[in-house]
Structure formats: C-alpha cells, structure tokens
Design brief:
The complex is a heterodimer of chains A (209) and B (140). Chain A is mainly beta. Chain A has 3 helices and 14 strands. In chain A, the strands form 3 sheets. A 6-stranded mixed β-barrel of chain A has the order 1-3-2-6-5-4. A 4-stranded mixed beta sheet of chain A has the order 10-7-9-12, with no helix packed on it. Helix content of chain B is 19%, strand content 29%. In chain B, the strands form 2 sheets. In chain B, strands 4-7-2-8 form a 4-stranded antiparallel beta sheet, with helices on one face. The chains are: A mainly beta (209), B alpha+beta (140).
Chain lengths: 209, 140
C-alpha cells in the first residue's frame, strides 16, 4: 500500500464564483466525505497536488490529508480536469474507516512480450486497463501485474486468471477479458471511399392538400 | 466515406459553435489521441483522408478509433445560379467539433509511430489539433 500526504484547508464558501477565485489564487476546490461523516468543503494547493499526482497512482494511494490540527486517511475518488488545458478543477477525497473494505480501481501492468505479437504478428489489445477490487485500505496494491509472456492469438487472459494480492477480491466479472492478441488485419482497404449515397429521409412530407 | 444512413430532415441550419467539448474529450479507447484545439467543421472527406493516412503510416498493427461522426448536412447552390429559389442541395457531411474533442485514437504502436501518424492526420484537418497520450497511473 502506497501512502502520501497533502495539506488541506477547510472552506466555508461554495459555488462556482468562489471556486473560480480559488483557482485563480492557486488553490483547488475539493471535498472530503465518508461513512458516518458529513461532507466538508476544502481547498488544496494546486502545485502541491500536481506534484503529488506526478508520482502516485491516484486511485490506489492512501492520502493522509492534513486538516487543521488532525489528519484524515483518504482515497482520491475523482479528479476533474479542464477538457483542453488539463488543469485540475476539483478533487474528491473519501475518508477511510478502519476495518471497512473499500472498492478501488487498481491499474494493470502488462509484463513481458506476448508470443502472439512477436511470433504470430498479432496486435496486442488491452481490454481492461484497471481492475475494480474490494480490499482492506491497508492492503490496497499499487498495481496488479499481468503476465503476458504466454499470450497467443485466440487465447485471451481473463479476470479469473489474474493473481490478486491476498485479501483482495475482484469485483469485475471473472469471465471479462483483460487482454488479448488479435490477428493482424490486412491494411484497411483504401478503395472503400465510394461516393456518399443520399440518406433516406425518415419522415416523408405529408401529401399536399 | 462516413455519412448517416437515415435522417429526419435533409437540410440543416448553419448553427454557431460555442463552448468547449465536455464529453468525448478523454482518451477512452486507445493509448494515443488527436484532440481538437479550436471549433470547426470536419468533413467526411477529411475524416477519410485522416483514416487512410493513419492506417498507411502505422502499416500493420495498431487499432484506430474515429470518435467523430459527420451527421450535419452542408448545402451548396450550383455555380452561376441567381440568388433565391430556395436553399441549395446537400453537398457534403460534416462533424461539428468543439475544442477539446478527441477526434481519433490509436493503440498498439510505439509512441514515435503514433506521433508521426497523428501528425499526418492533423495535416488533413481544418481545425488545429494536438497529439495526446492517455493519462497513465504511476505504478512504480
């Protein structure tokens, strides 16, 4: 389990005007919520958060949130980003409760080279990039390794084939495909650029009166 | 070329493009993407040219996703026609693109190959665009 720490401040004002002013001042609006606790509006330092996200796996790292005097053990649940600039707009933290299992999405890391790609000339397809698991907060894995050194065309790896850390259970269906090697298609035909046909109009005009 | 199979109306108003893409702005299927940076219309000819450029550039291997669809008909009056006498006939189909829209995605090729393919595709488009990579979780 990876942990990190981050400073936060409580805020009393909410709304988009306040949020915009905060962002202009280098702070990011955030919220912390959890079981048996009221949701609380916060702000975090934009630079500190960007630096933190640069070296952790956000979905599976426990963040010790410094709140006034105390700290709260949290998981980052959502990061909203600007669609074009990719700057962070808002962050959700979920406070963890000791002894209570949490549902987290853990990234999958594909290890090795698939013989289906190297020898059979297929295309490696990652179907799942993250796996949803239920685990104790103290034993959330940083990532799950997927060994693809025996992956050939027509024999995909399923969720049930994965080696999960002890105490973790997969919430994704065991029959779901994790990755596969697809047969290489011949280069897409360039000759199908036929002239566009006129589409059918769904509702015909009423008969003229 | 891409075009709708059935439509409710043959002709459409021009419209105005405001704001940014709130949906379809993430790399959702592949590993690399080509993201629009300005609003505009992308025609089905341009989309087809991009698809051909990308698939020829990556040669074999690689999987392409086209995440825009030209569903807006554009009309044009014939040459040397006097004004009036109604709206022209549909001539082409375009996709309305807002800044941030992920137009193409690619997977199964190394980064340098993807960057080259997307640069070739970007040259075929009438909107400015940038090459983007899926935001990966840090797993070290």
């Amino acid at each position: 389990m990876a942990t990190a720490s981050l400073g936060a401040e409580r805020r009393s004002e909410t709304g988009k005007g306040v949020a915009r002013k905060l962002r202009a001042a280098g702070r990011i609006p955030a919220v912390v919520y959890g079981h048996n606790r009221a949701a609380e509006a916060l702000t975090v330092d934009a630079r500190e958060l960007e630096r933190l996200l640069g070296h952790i796996s956000a979905a599976s790292t426990v963040v010790e949130l410094g709140l006034g005097g105390g700290t709260a053990r949290t998981l980052i649940r959502e990061i909203q980003r600007h669609p074009v600039k990719r700057t962070i707009l808002h962050v959700d933290f979920q406070e963890l409760v000791a002894g209570e299992r949490v549902t987290v999405s853990v990234p999958l890391v594909f290890v090795g080279t698939a013989p289906g790609v190297r020898e059979q000339g297929g295309i490696f397809e990652e179907v799942l990039r993250e796996l949803s698991i239920s685990a104790d907060p103290s034993s959330i894995p940083n990532h799950i390794d997927v060994d693809i050194s025996k992956l050939t065309i027509g024999h995909p790896i399923h969720v049930r084939d994965l080696q999960l850390p002890s105490g973790a259970t997969a919430l994704t269906d065991g029959d779901a495909t994790v990755c596969s090697v697809a047969g290489s298609k011949s280069a897409a035909s360039d000759a199908d650029a036929a002239a566009t046909a006129e589409p059918e109009v769904i509702r015909q005009k009423k008969a003229e009166e | 070329m891409l075009s709708p199979k059935r439509v409710k109306f043959r002709k459409m108003f021009k419209g105005r493009t405001t704001g940014i893409a709130r949906r379809g702005s993430e790399v959702s299927f592949g590993h690399y993407g080509l993201q629009a940076l300005e609003p505009g219309w992308v025609s089905n000819r341009q989309i087809e040219a991009c698809r051909v450029a990308i698939s020829r550039s990556v040669k074999r291997g690689g999987k392409i996703w086209i995440r825009i669809f030209p569903d807006k008909p554009i009309t044009k009056k014939p040459a040397e026609t006097r004004m009036g006498k109604g709206k022209g006939s549909p001539e082409q189909w375009v996709a309305v693109v807002k800044p941030g829209r992920m137009m193409f995605e690619l997977e199964g090729v190394p980064r340098d190959v993807a960057e080259k393919a997307m640069a070739l595709a970007a040259a075929k488009l009438s909107v400015k665009s940038k090459f983007v990579v899926r935001e990966e979780a840090h797993t070290e």
